[in-house]
């Protein structure tokens, strides 16, 4: 039986992952799984930079705008659904492409999720109330005390991640980080990780330009339409939080846009930190041509 290969395209936001994924999918005559958790939601298109209609028609994509912001959908749900889909896709092709900037979701597929003990569900209720009443800073401070190790590497602007870590800390009396990387999962496919990189100023320039294009494409109207649902976890993300501040009268539009750019740049920095931890990743320049990248893959992995 031929080896099955998952080619995972990673890198900071705005670097060109979708374009490379499509070119690789065309070359290997296969399909694409998205591991970008922001792009799962039907109601969020512009602010999450979902692939264009033309791109989606070029190659079949999975997990793009497949659920609603009102749906409960965890990284565990994604792991279950994506692994099941991979089993089907590998019946048609020995190679499947995965692309996305959500490191936790990528690791869920390639490495499997860490296992955590059951805790009192009322703890999550209490933490959600704390978030609503006092804001995210209270959660950040609490986690920095209970688990400074995890606090220093988690996206501290993501309330869902903070609450998940805190409920384990509070429910077990042990740091969330103590449960990480305890269980090794063996997949029935092999993973090739391709990382796209560029000099920092180029990444930041591309991010700034992308935000400007989003605004031109109607980002403000998209976020305005979602303002009644702004408390939902799905909307606690860069590009949406900042514009909610504008609608509330706290910020000017220009300042909100500048904050989107700043917070997206910070997000890109965290992405690179996460992805650089994988020493097996083959890093390529954002301008490298597809033939060169395919040659590197074939020479290294004999596929």
From TrEMBL:
Record carries keyword Magnesium: yes
Positions that bind ATP: 11-18
Location of region: Interaction with substrate tRNA: 36-39
Cofactor (UniProt): Mg(2+)
Highest taxon of the lineage: Bacteria
Positions bearing the site annotation: Interaction with substrate tRNA: 102, 124
Coiled-coil ranges per UniProt: none
Catalysed reactions, as listed in the record: adenosine(37) in tRNA + dimethylallyl diphosphate = N(6)-dimethylallyladenosine(37) in tRNA + diphosphate
Keywords associated with the record: ATP-binding, Magnesium, Nucleotide-binding, Transferase, tRNA processing
Residues bound to substrate: 13-18
One Pfam family in the UniProt entry: IPPT
EC top class, as a word: transferase
Gene Ontology MF terms in the entry: tRNA dimethylallyltransferase activity
Enzyme Commission code(s) on record: 2.5.1.75
Stated role: Catalyzes the transfer of a dimethylallyl group onto the adenine at position 37 in tRNAs that read codons beginning with uridine, leading to the formation of N6-(dimethylallyl)adenosine (i(6)A).
Subunit structure: Monomer.
HAMAP family, alphabetized: IPP_trans (MF_00185)
Family (UniProt): Belongs to the IPP transferase family.
Listed PANTHER family: TRNA DIMETHYLALLYLTRANSFERASE
Protein name as annotated: tRNA dimethylallyltransferase
